[in-house]
Input
Amino acid sequence: MGTFNFFSCPHRFARLRLAPHPWWGQKPLMLFSLFLVLYPQLQKGAEIVNLKIRDIDPVALKKIDEIAKEKGISRQKFLKAQIEMLAFFQQQHKREMELENLIEKNIHMMSDCYSAMEKMNEFIQMMMQDVENE
Output
């Protein structure tokens, strides 16, 4: 069983280490057993975080390498982007749902305002007809 090197993040966000697990062998095409290891080494006031991912299927790793190569970026940059996107996806999805809810409320309120304006317009026209009939 071989161990892959660390892939340092240029923004000091995380370091990723990929290693196969000696007991379980190959796994399905997904990332397994995320382990965060914090090292309080400060560089420019930021904490460095090491991220180890174990038990990666070699086929999955090859596919990751192919996708990264197609995009013209390194495996580390590709995985970093995927992990960051995963980390913020739920928050972004929540914001989108709140915005959708707000838009629905605005549409409903505009519909209510339109109905009220129609009623006022009918009332004004009725009053004007009464004045003309006198």
Observations:
- Residues 1-19, 24-44 have pLDDT under 50 and may be disordered.
- The two ends are 101 Å apart (CA to CA).
- The chain has two helices and four strands.
- The longest strand covers residues 32-43.
